[in-house]
Amino acid sequence: MAKLIRLRPLDAKKGHVIHRYTAFSTTFEEHKGWYRVSDDVAAYLATVNQVPNDEDTPLAFDVCTKEEAERIELAEKKRAEERARAAEPNVAAPRDATAIGSDLTTADLRDPGRRSRAAAPTGRRS
User: How does pLDDT run across 31-58, given as a tens digit for each residue?
Assistant: First the structure.
């Protein structure tokens, strides 16, 4: 029975850094998604790591059945929606400007004779 495989999505923080991989005269590309391969090819690709000859790096491929692939896709879609929802800004309703009262008058302005801090004389404090 054929298996589905794909290069794991790019994520440098998790160590997933491969964009494309060639094996058995087939080039697998991360952005193209799932590929149907024979069991022999799937068995080999299940052992491929992100960095050649380094067993400590994560595996490069997801190897699974069709049902498992659908479950993985659904979980990733839910995570993407949650991230998008978290990135939405919190929008507050604007205050009703008429509740404040009438328009501003010159009495509401600050005293023109009073100097601002920046215009205050500089010098040492005693």
Answer: 888 899 999 999 999 898 888 888 888 8
Q: End-to-end CA distance of the chain, in Å?
A: 90
φ and ψ of 81, to 5 deg? -65, -40
**In the 8-state DSSP scheme, what is residue 19?**
S
Domain ranges of the chain: 3-83
Residue 57, C-beta contacts closer than 8 angstroms, at least 6 positions apart: 15, 49, 50, 51
Distance CA 42, CA 71 (A): 19
Of 100 and 60, the structure prediction assigns the larger pLDDT to 60
Question: What is each CA distance from 19 to 44, 90, 124, in whole angstroms?
Answer: 18, 36, 64
35 Cβ contact list (under 8 Å, min separation 6): 4, 5, 6, 26, 28
Q: Which residues contact 106 (CB under 8 A, 6 or more apart)?
A: none
